[in-house]
Amino acid sequence: MSETNDTIVINGLKENGQRISSQEFEQMVQAAAERSHHLLLHTYGQHNIGGRLFKKDARYRIVVKGPVGQRLGCMARPGVTIVSEGSASNDVGYLNIGADIIVKGDAGDGVCNAMAQGRVMIGGSIGARGLTMSKWNPEYARPELWVLGSVGDIFAEFNCGGIGVVCGINPKTPENVMGYRPCVGMVGGWIFYRGKTDGSFSKGDVKDTVPNDEQWQWLLSRLPEFLEAIGQPEHLASLSKRGEWRMLIALTPQEKTLLNLGSMSMQDFRTKVWEAAFKGDPLRDLAPGLDRSPIGLIVTGELRRRVPYWANRANAAPCTFYCPTHIPTVDRLRLIRDGKIDESYELTLRYTPFPASVCGAICPNLCMEQCSRQDVDTSIDIAMLGRAVLDAKLPPVKPNTGKKVAIIGGGPAGMSAAWQLAQEGIEAHIYEREEKLGGKIEQVIPWERLSIAIWQKEIDRFLQMPNIVLHLGHTVTKEDLERFLKEYEYVIVAAGAHEPRRIPFPGSERVITALDFLKSVKSGKPMKIGKRVVIIGAGNVGCDVACEAYRNGAEQVILVDIQKPLAFGKEREAAEKLGAVFRWPVNTKEVTEEGLVLADGEVIPADTVMISIGDVPALPFLPDSIERFRGWIKTDEVGRTSDSKIFAVGDVERPGLIAHALGAGKRTAECIVALLKGQEYQPFKQRVIDKKALTTAHYCPTSSKGINVADEADRCLSCGSCRDCHLCETICPAKAISRKTLSDGGYEYVSDDEKCIACGFCADTCPCGIWVMKTA
Amino acid sequence: MVAVSSITSSPSDLTYADLPWLIEHREDRCAVCGKCTAVCPVQAIQLTYRRQRIVGLGMLGKGKNDPSVNYRTLYGIKQKTDVAHRCIGCGMCSMVCPNEAIRPIPNPNDARLRFHMNQGGDAWKRGGRRNDRDSLLDKIIFTRISMLTDPALDAGRHEFFMNTILGRILPPEEFIQKKAKGEWIPPTREIFPFIIGSMSFGALSPNMWLGLLQGVAYLNEVLKIPVVMATGEGGCPPWVLKSPFLKYIILQIASGYFGWDEIVRAIPEMQCDPAAIEIKYGQGAKPGDGGLLMWFKVSKLIARLRGVPEGVDLPSPPVHQTLYSIEESVMKMIQTMSMAWGFRVPVYPKISGSTSAKAVLNNLVRNPYAAGMLIDGMDGGTGAAYNVSMDSMGHPIASNIRECYLDLVAQGRENEIPLFAAGGIGKNGNIAQNGMALVMLGASGVHMGKYIMQAAAGCLGSERNRCNVCNIGLCPKGITSQNPKLYRRLDPDQVAQRVVEVFTSIRTEMKKIMAPLGRSQSLPIGMSDAIGIGDAAAAERLKIRYIC
């Protein structure tokens, strides 16, 4: 068949009046399109007219008359023009990719559904869902839908770049030319409209606006062609009034996000709605002026929950705390570090008259037992520090005040009290039964444990102390005491415990007491003992007895105790070194010639049995009115007895170490000094520093203990007392800490509140435990 | 000599490996800036110095001056191991660290700490929630998807009616009769079915509480989503009572009666009625146990709000002191509260999840003033409770709400008295799914507490016992502290903004659930044919479809 320029006419009805199926009609159209580009189709409801005219670059003009089926111009290509002389059914321009489709009458639902390119021009109105899912591919021209009248509901849903023009001329729905809820999900394109609407367009997707110059120009320039195509050019003038046109334009994704969260910023809402409703802060009556303004996580100044505090010297070092005399060893060692050796020794002597004899020899050194340095290596050798003071001179003392105190007993407790009183210019009169001072140190403690040379040197120094008056060989009587109470401001009872305790088991008369034995040894006329010795009571005195027994002829010494032996330290080591054996638990039944008979009948053979279970005070001079408890004098925390003029210190108060006796003497003397001055006595009240507050990792273990005071001074952790090491200043991340020199020559470290973030690094770093974080 | 520094081993000495949260610190990244130790709410971490012995083990060259043993000191961040300073896993250290050098990690080994959480003889008390991450609600699937069989709806395209009714709904004939006679008709409220559950001004900081309300106000006034929030016990600031925002508030009355003098005083000055009155009989997180606002949370502000002296413990007893029976309770409390606002405000009780819930419900059904019932399941949260109450007391919400709903169905009254569910909704973040699952099991709406704290304020708590220190006033986010140094960390505007974001997204997810079910014009309350679960026992108990 040859091509022709003539219009080929195809009938949708067979000659017999039977309708041709859409499929058959399509084949007829295809065949005709091979021959001519001008087709006149008398359709009878056939669907999908105008599609599949796929010849490249060919231009077709297809005029449709009669009842038009669905999907007119479906999948039609550019270059194809389809004109329906009357109205059309649903889905005109479905999937159209470029054809011009003109419907001179009305069109049904779904006009331009999924159309990507081309123009659909409607001379009447359309049904629902027009311009839905229309897509604009930017490689091609935008799809356009022109409607002279109105559109039905749900117009332009999910429109993506298509342009709709709704002219509102003779609309089917004059009260609402855009239908109900247009533009849901519309993401691009323009909708021009003219006429009344119900305002139900999807506000989350599009905004209602007026055309700008460019958009108006676009519309105005194309209107004539549209009107021409639908054959109604007469409306041009009425459609050319810019003021009558409005537009619905897709929101940008950014605009949509904002809109989803409301059209008002929260700050605006707060000021314009929220606070406006309260006429101010809603808490203003409950908490006037409460500042609730936001702050950050890291804060300074008043906003910190903790603040650092430089608690220098607020807590005691363990050495000071546990020493009954509270000798401030950290201060002694600081003076040594500062090169002030003499001052260091003087400081020591202010606390004790016997640093070499007691600290350096006979004291078990409770200070060292608790020394923090043990976290690093070994404790500071405080005994050695004591011995170093042996040759130090007397500290300067205050002039005699004329006040006098009587001290009954010249043992460690009484001497310590006298030493303190004398330094304060108070005359201390010591009444001592024996001819020598020193009490049990002098009479009982073996010379092996305290060299006579050291002891003599310290006694000599003691005797040089002004304001001390000795009354040796004076056994105090009740009458004496009455006199003392009149002649002296105060009386201190420091007579010690010189009455050995015994147990009245059968044969107890055979038993030698430790006190008698040790006194005899110390006096140079030792009691005779056998080769096999049993000592009842395995404490430290028992150990001294054992050692002396070995030295005086014993070959085997057994220490027995009813409980686990309390002996410890140097005394026990010495006894064990000599061969002493400990046995416990042992219940003594009796002592016979054979030895010690136990409750179970066993006999521990012994030539000599000694008992070492402590001594009690002998106080014949003391009036009965002074309260006692089981033989010891009852005292308060400063050593005062039930008579406020009489104090008691040392073993008369309670049994203890020599160090306890020294401490008690010092304490009571200080209390008396305060009383005589009319001041309030300030007892030692510091708490021991929490070891966790110290940072010991700054120190490295030394290969051996320091061998001189300078080494020990370096090793000292200076618990609770600033070592001026600057570590806090260095570690502080906020640069808040600085060191300030004070007018008195001292110094302090301070933290600037405005810089400090309260990290606690100062407290975590301070080797001495000075910085503490306090709750703010 | 006995070394005092010898290392001891007392019963409650723990190593860091015994703690539930371990601090992982990287010295190679640490800036030594102090921020982590400054921010740590419980002082669980500190700067530490570690001395190391460096031993030269070479065979040769040993001699007089051989420095074969040296020491070096390293520094780093260390966690404390005592019970009081244990790491709580909050992760604030990570939040402030400039170098990602520090973080808490859960200890995969046995955390022996649990055996020592009773120091001083007091049983373990904490804030937070039940330490159980499992959620039955998470497992409920919406199975009835409308395909070609009936028109599916488009969540993005269709309009949805998603609100619920709080209040007694009369049967139509009764309504018409009463209306005709001009009789009293029980008040109702159309509200969004996700409700911010009861958290008191006191348990919450001022910035948190006001931030929540500001967000709720925004949702109502700007976005027109009718969200309401419940106050919890402890009153409501007088200016809020007299504000137009009162209509978004459910006021709670509980056994402590805190704040009610101020509420009663404010009634004549109220611009509007409150959304409802909630009578608290129980709380899911600590059923049968009372509340206690610790003295350190009773600031001047809280004291004035609650009408009590400052710095005293404020106990709310487990039971209302003068109520002896359900009937009496209904008479006394529901009727009194209804009358206070001229019978214009719905009044409903809140009870702990319990096997006795049905008994309560059946009494309420017979009471014309009962506007609904809220069941708080055991996965709910609390500011402070004994661990045993939190972990082991109560009833899970799903079967409890379901049996109550089916009971109403059996009586033909399921549309009359609304049931509300609470307790663990959104515990793993699936708030809309959890809530809608409960709706389809029969709830008319759900209350959420922990979720909103987590989502709107960044609460760090978790079902792995992370943080959970609401009880001690140290909330690192400032949510549950009355210390301005902490609660000022929370910006009320940001909380409000997040509240808005939470609800707009819940709304979206609700549509995403409702649309495929073909449901847009009413909340699918009791639409249990739409859900299924891959757990046969649960399916049987809940009377829903077992799916696999």
Distance between the termini of chain B: 73 Å
- Rg of chain B (C-alpha, Å): 27 Å
Q: How much helical structure, as a percent, in the residues of chain A?
A: 25-40%
Tell how many strands the DSSP assignment of chain B holds.
21
> Main sheet of chain B, how many strands, which sense, barrel?
8 strands, parallel
Q: What's the pLDDT, averaged over the residues of chain B?
A: 92
Query: How large is the share of residues in beta strands of chain B?
Result: 15-25%
Strand order of the largest sheet of chain A: 1-2-3-4-5-6-7-8-9-11-10
Please describe the biggest sheet of chain A, giving its number of strands, its sense, and whether it closes into a barrel. 11 strands, mixed
Strand order of the largest sheet of chain B: 9-19-18-16-15-12-11-10
Measure the end-to-end span of chain A. 104 Å
Mean pLDDT of chain A: 93
Number of helices of chain B: 16
Uncertain stretches of chain A:
none
Task: Provide the fold topology.
The complex is a heterodimer of chains A (776) and B (548).
Chain A: E1 8-11, H1 22-35, E2 38-42, E3 60-65, E4 80-84, E5 97-103, E6 117-122, E7 144-147, E8 160-166, E9 188-194, E10 206-209, H2 213-230, H3 236-239, E11 245-250, H4 253-260, H5 266-278, E12 306-310, H6 318-322, H7 329-337, H8 341-351, H9 355-362, H10 366-369, H11 382-387, E13 404-408, H12 412-423, E14 427-432, H13 439-443, H14 452-464, E15 468-472, H15 478-487, E16 490-493, E17 499-500, E18 512-513, H16 514-522, E19 532-536, H17 540-551, E20 556-560, H18 569-578, E21 581-583, E22 588-591, E23 595-598, E24 603-605, E25 608-611, E26 615-616, E27 628-629, E28 632-633, E29 646-648, H19 658-677, H20 709-715, H21 727-731, E30 737-741, E31 747-751, H22 761-765, E32 771-775
Parallel strand pairs in A: 1-2, 2-3, 3-4, 4-5, 5-6, 6-7, 7-8, 8-9, 13-14, 13-16, 14-15, 16-29, 18-25, 19-20, 19-25, 20-21
Antiparallel strand pairs in A: 9-11, 10-11, 12-32, 17-26, 22-23, 23-24, 27-28, 30-31
Helix pairs in contact in A: 7-8, 7-20, 12-19, 16-17, 17-18
Chain B: E1 21-25, H1 35-39, E2 45-55, E3 69-79, H2 92-96, E4 102-106, E5 125-129, E6 140-142, E7 164-167, H3 172-181, E8 188-191, E9 194-196, H4 206-221, E10 229-230, H5 238-241, E11 249-253, H6 260-266, E12 276-280, E13 291-293, H7 300-306, E14 314-316, H8 326-340, E15 347-352, H9 357-365, E16 373-376, E17 381-386, H10 387-392, H11 397-411, E18 419-422, H12 431-441, E19 445-448, H13 450-457, H14 484-487, H15 492-514, E20 531-533, H16 536-542, E21 545-546
Parallel strand pairs in B: 9-19, 10-11, 11-12, 12-15, 15-16, 16-18, 18-19, 20-21
Antiparallel strand pairs in B: 1-4, 2-3, 5-17, 6-20, 7-8, 13-14
Helix pairs in contact in B: 4-15, 12-15, 13-15
